[in-house]
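Changelog note: in this version the structure field was regenerated for every chain. One regenerated record is shown below for reference.
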Amino acid sequence: MSDVLRVQWTIIAQTAPQPWLTCSRCGEARRFRSSDKIRVNANGKRIDAWLIYKCTGCGSTWNRPILERRPVRTIEQGFLTALHASEAVLARRLAFDVEGLRRSAARVEEFDDALVIEAVLSASTMPPRQLEILCRVPKPVGLRLDRLLANELRLSRGRIRGLAETGDLVVFPSVSSLRRPVRDGMRLVVSHLFSAACRPPA
């Protein structure tokens, strides 16, 4: 018999990461937001492509390099077609490529607004005493672990910190702080959880 409830939380970021850049019109550092538009310049043999960003203050544009002087023959045809069509799915995928974005901007802000989809992987056969949460994060999100757990378990962040301090909340792989963003593949194990003060996840 098992008293462990295993669930999966799929955490879907709603807002793409935004770089902070010096805006020539504003005269100071501003956040730039993806316009979801791709610009392509091709001369037949080579191609340049950019994802267009706009300053959140004044609307000035910044072209984020995607391809630079790339031989057309080296590019997969489907990707090339999507670039020329400025396909929305491709533009959104590029906007969430935070590691690629950091190669162009020193500071990148991630946001914590996310949709959390819960699914039970393995129900307990007894009243649950332990909760194991597998986190799937398809795209990077700035949602902190303490805030995620507080929101989904309907507990205060102070209670979440208390569980960590007593060893009743363990994060795999370990993190230095619950203020760290949730990442794909994290496993959260919470013990002695289900009391009158807390509900099991749906």
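Spot check on this record: Residues 77-85 form the longest helix (9 residues). The mean pLDDT is 91.
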